[in-house]
Amino acid sequence: MQAVKTEHKVILDWVNEGASVLDLGCGDGELLAQLISQKRVRAQGIELSDVAIQCCIAQGVSVFQQDIDTGLSEYADQSFDYVILNQTLQQVKKPDFALREALRVGNRVIVSFPNFVQAAARFQIFFKGRVPVTKALPYEWYDTPNLHFLGIADFKDYCKKRNIQIEASAFIAKNQQLKLFANLLAETGLFLLRSS
Amino acid sequence: MEATKLTQNQILEETALKHFTFANPPKELTLESGEKLGPITLAYETYGTLNKQKSNAILVLHALSGDAHAAGNDGWWSNLIGEGKGLDTNKYFVISSNVLGGCKGSTGPSSTNPKTGKPFGTDFPIISIGDIVNAQKRLIDHLGIQKLLAVIGGSMGGMQVLQWMISYPDNICSAIPIATAMKHTPQQIAFNEVGRQAILADPDWKGGHYYDSAVPAKGLAVARMIGHVTYMSDTSMAEKFGRRTRANNSNSKFGADFEVEGYLRYRGDNFVKRFDANSYLYITKAIDNFNILNGNKNLASIFKNLAAKVLVIAFKSDWLYPVYQSQEIVKACKLASVDASYCEINSTYGHDAFLLETEQEAYLIGNFLNTVSNGHHGGTH
To answer: What is the ipTM of this complex?
Structure first.
C-alpha cells in the first residue's frame, strides 16, 4: 500500500468512524479508499475525468461522473456527515457557490487548497518577476487547472465574512505540519468547517 | 487435444438452450393488465457454475431483438461474457433468458394458444416489463437462487434491471442498468410507432394471424431498418459507410445505390429470418408503456430502502437513450442515498455502444462485481 500523504492523514484524523462522506473531485479515489478501509465510512465520490472514474471503480469506491459545478443540487440538505473539497475549490468555476452548496449538503466541510502566497511563490514573483511554479503549484500559467488564487489568510477572511465557523485547521509544508507562520510557509492549508 | 475436445463439449452442453415451464392452469400468471396467462415457458441458457452457497448468479437481460443466447459463438454479448471476461464465467454463474413475449423459445404471440391449438397472434395479451421480470423471478426461484449477485442489461434490458430494483429489491445484491431510461420520451415512442406502423401496413400481417401463410416480411424489415438508424450515430455511420456507392443490380431507379442503403436492407431482410413481427409489436409496446414512476411513485422515493449497489452506465454518443436519461436514474439514487456509481463512456457507436464498446464496459463491470462479491461495501448504510 502507498504511503499515506500528510494531507490525507489530517483528513483521516478529522473524519469520524462510520460517517458518510462525499468527496467532490475525488480523483482516483485514493482518499476515499483510505477512509473506507480505516474509518469504515460510507463513501461517495464525484469526479469528471474518465481515467479517474475507472480507478475509483477498480478500488471499490462509488463515484458519479459529473461536474461538481452542477452535481450537488440533487442532494437534500445535510445528506452527508462530511463533504470534502480536497484540492478542488481553487479549480471550480464558482468557489463561493460550491462551498455554500457543500455546507448545505454536508454537516461539516473539509477544504484543502494550495497556498498561493507561500514564500517560494512570493520569491519567484518578487525577484524573478515570474508567475510562480513551485512544488505545491506545479503548473505553468497556460496549462493550470487552477482557476482561483488564494492564500491561507484570504480563506480565513472569507470564512469570517461568510460566517463560516472554522472548527480545525492544519498547515503543511514539506510533508510536515506547521505551527507558525502558516500564510508565509504552508504549501497546503486544510480547514474543517461548519455553518454557524 | 483430448482436453480441448472436452472443453468444447462442455461449452456446447452449457450453452444448450434449456426450457422452464410454469403457471400451468389453474395457476396462471396474472399479468399487470389483469389478464391471466399460462402455461408459460421461458427459454434460457446458463454459463459457468453455480456455487454451493448459490451466491454467484448473475442474470443478464436482453434488449428488444435479443434472445437467451448471450454468450459463446454468435452470442449477442459474447465480448462481455466468458472465461476471464467482464462477466467472468470462471467466477460467476450467468443466466440469460428470452423474454416473455419473445420468439426464441419463450412464450409469445407465435406460441400455440392452448385454447385454440393455433398460434396466439394478436390474441396474445398485452405484456409489460413488469410481467417480463415477474416471469424471470419464477425462473430464478426454480433455479433455487434466493439472491442474485447482479442483474445487468442494456436498453430494454436496462429497463428490466430498473424493474428488478423496484419489484425485487431484496433479491439482488447489485444492479447494472446500461444505456437505458426510467420511461420512454415522445421521441423514443415515435420511433417505435413508425416501426409498428410499417408492420401493420404490410398486407401480409393480416391482423396478426399470418402464421399459416407468408410473414409480413417487408413491414418487419422496414421496422428493423428504422431501428438500426437509431442505434447508430452520425459519426459511426459516416465512418462505416461514408457516401460510398455499391453496384446496383436491381434495374430499379430506386435501388440500393449507397452502401448505407444496402446495409440497412441486408439487416432488415436478415432480421425477418430470426424474428417474429408480432413479438416486435408486443415488445415495443411493453417498452413504450414502461414507466418506473407509475403508481404515484416519485423520484425521491422510488429507490427508498434499496440496499443493492448500483452501477449506471451511459454512452456519450447515444442519442436514442441520451445520457440525461441515465442521469435521471442517478438523481433518483442520490435522493434515496443508494450506494451508486455512474459512468459516461466515450464512444462514437451511439446506442449500439453497449454491445460494441465492451472493453471499457468489461473493465468497469468486472471491477464493480469484484467489489460486490467481496462484500466490500462502504461501511454502514
So the answer is: 0.91
Span B264-302, pLDDT tens digits? 999 999 999 999 999 999 999 999 999 999 876 788 899
For B143-154, the pLDDT digits (tens) are: 999 999 999 999
Domain enclosing residue B259, as ranges: 188-288
Domain count, chain B: 2
B212: domain CATH number is 1.10.1740.110
Crossing angle for the helix pair B259-274 and B217-231, to the nearest 10 degrees: 120
The pairing of strands B174-178 and B309-315 is parallel
Task: Count Cβ atoms within 10 A of the Cβ of residue B84 and give its class: 0-12 exposed, 13-18 middle, 19 or more buried.
Answer: exposed
Chain B CB within 8 Å of residue A76 CB: yes
Is there a single domain that holds both residue B42 and residue B97?
yes
A-chain residues within 8 Å CB-CB of B175? none
Block means of pLDDT (10 residues each) for chain A, 196 residues, are 81 98 97 97 96 96 92 89 96 94 97 94 94 90 93 97 97 93 94 90
Measured in angstroms, the CA of B363 and the nearest CA of chain A are apart by: 8
- Chain A residues inside the 8 Å CB shell of B330: 64, 66
The shortest C-alpha distance from B125 to chain A (Å) reads: 40
Residue A147 sits at the chain B interface (C-beta within 8 Å): no
**Residue B54's CATH number:** 3.40.50.1820
Distance CA A99, CA B164 (A): 37
Last residue of a domain, one of B260, B288, B316: B288
- Give the three-state DSSP class for A127: helix
pTM of the model: 0.93
| Measured CA angle at B104 (ends B99, B108), to 5 deg | 60
Task: Kindly state whether A12 is in contact with chain B, defined as any CB-CB distance less than 8 angstroms.
Answer: no
Q: Where do we find the cell 399479468? A: B31
| Domain endpoint, select from B231, B255, B288 | B288
